[in-house]
Design goal:
With about 260 residues, the protein is α/β, with parallel strands linked by helices. It has seven helices and seven strands, in the order H-H-H-E-H-E-H-E-E-E-H-E-E-H. The strands form two sheets. Strands 2-1-3-6-7 form a five-stranded parallel sheet, sandwiched between helices. Strands 4-5 form a two-stranded antiparallel ribbon. Helix 4 (about 125-135) links the parallel strand 1 and strand 2 (about 140). Helix 1 runs antiparallel to helix 2 (about 30-45), helix 1 runs antiparallel to helix 3 (about 75-95) and helix 2 (about 30-45) packs parallel to helix 3 (about 75-95).
Length: about 260
């Protein structure tokens, strides 16, 4: 089964904007039309294996529907749900169609010297890694320090579509424990935004183009659900493992530049 993604994006954008317009103008079109269209689009996408975690929107039960007196609060809420879900799905599809890395993942050509650097609150590790990259004539891009802070992280990443490698720093930033337990039972983990960006880069660039550096501490939990990730412990000589990763991805690295170490 094939899908014309160009037309699908147009349909999703129209569905989101039309239902939002109807809602804001308090003009209640037949929300069932929007609902059926959204569910049909999602069904087509799931048939191809995309977004299987998303659920179809259920119609308002017959007993909650309004007859002859406008629309009920339940129907109005459902229209808002359709508008929001359509907008979310529209953004997901746009992201799905963003320029992917090559199937090879590792280019045979010399890479750009720019590298994404994702970090938490460990400023010492961030400073050390940045210094090593810069000494190797690489240019770390720290998205949180760049201008245009009004953009979300994915929009900012898309501004650097030519960058093909990322280094992610995991540090013990947040103490996490289940609601049934106490802080004494907690484990330290990296910040949620760091995990999000790690997952995003793994999907966008491929495992071989992402290196993760972590500082090992007591009660620090390393995620075990990231297969194929390049884990580098932040200890004496950590930079040699990073250089090995960079060389494997065809970066031109002169290790003699680290003689100051």
């Amino acid at each position: 089964m094939g899908i014309d993604f160009g037309s699908l994006i147009i349909d999703l954008e129209a569905l989101a904007s039309s239902s939002k317009e109807d809602f804001s103008n308090e003009f209640w079109s037949e929300y069932e039309i929007y609902l059926k269209k959204y569910n049909l689009i999602l069904k087509d996408l799931q048939t191809l294996g995309f977004f299987k975690e998303l659920n179809f929107i259920q119609s308002v039960p017959l007993s909650d529907q309004s007859f002859g007196s406008g629309f009920s609060n339940q129907e109005k809420a459902k229209l808002r749900e359709i508008a929001n879900n359509s907008d979310i799905l529209y953004r997901k599809v746009r992201l799905l169609l963003s320029p992917p890395a090559s199937n090879n993942r590792v280019s045979d050509k010399v890479r750009s010297n720019k590298i994404f650097l994702v970090h938490g609150s460990d400023n010492e590790m961030k400073s050390d890694v940045s210094k090593v990259l810069e000494t190797l004539d690489l240019d770390p891009i720290v998205l949180h320090e760049n201008p245009d802070m009004w953009k979300n992280i994915i929009e900012k990443i898309n501004d650097y579509s030519h960058v093909s490698f990322a280094v992610v720093l995991l540090s013990s930033d947040d103490l996490v424990y289940s609601k049934e337990k106490t802080p004494d039972d907690g484990k330290y983990k990296a910040k949620q935004n760091v995990f999000f960006e790690l997952g995003y880069f793994l999907g966008r660039l491929g495992n071989q183009n992402v290196s993760v550096i972590y500082r090992k501490k007591n009660d620090f939990e390393i995620p075990n659900d990231y297969t194929g990730v390049r884990w580098i412990e932040y200890k004496l000589g950590w930079y040699y493992d990073l250089i090995k990763d960079l060389k494997a991805c065809n970066f031109e690295i002169d290790i003699n530049k680290l003689s100051w170490l």
